[in-house]
């Protein structure tokens, strides 16, 4: 045997630690802490820097590409959002027309609806 099991992955045996590990795996770990920290700690008028800009100054060549792609993504997102707003308006209008058509039948359907 070429391995020593006692050096292998150690698993917790206590229920509290098993539970802690399980819950730790469920919690989202990529949060925007830097933004909240920047807003709370950085006073108005103080300077700050972004990693992308710093990297581009020392030789990273894709800063402009990323900015371009981000603007394209935002434009497409805006188009999708406008379309969604239009569809929601049409849906609301269609629901209103359907309610007007049904009229008295809505009273019959009311106890069945949830």
Structure overview:
The protein has helices at residues 15-26, 33-41, 51-57, 63-102, 105-109. It is mainly alpha-helical and 114 residues long. The chain has a domain at 51-114. The protein is flat. It starts with 14 loop residues before the first helix and ends in a 5-residue tail after the last helix. The mean pLDDT is 87.
Give short descriptive properties of this protein:
114 residues, mainly alpha, Ribosomal_uL13_sf
Instruction: Kindly state the percentage of residues in helix.
Output: 55-70%
Major pleated sheet: none
Q: Runs with pLDDT <50, length 5+?
A: none
How confident overall, as mean pLDDT? 87
Q: Give the terminus-to-terminus CA distance.
A: 64 Å
The amount of beta strand, in percent, is under 5%
Principal-axis shape: flat
Q: Based on DSSP secondary structure assignment, what is the total number of beta strands?
A: 0
Q: Find the structural class using helix and strand composition.
A: mainly alpha
Number of helices: 5
Radius of gyration: 28 Å
Give the H and E element order: HHHHH
Protein name: BnaA09g03130D protein
Organism: Brassica napus (Rape)
Keywords: Ribonucleoprotein, Ribosomal protein
GO cellular component, one term: ribonucleoprotein complex
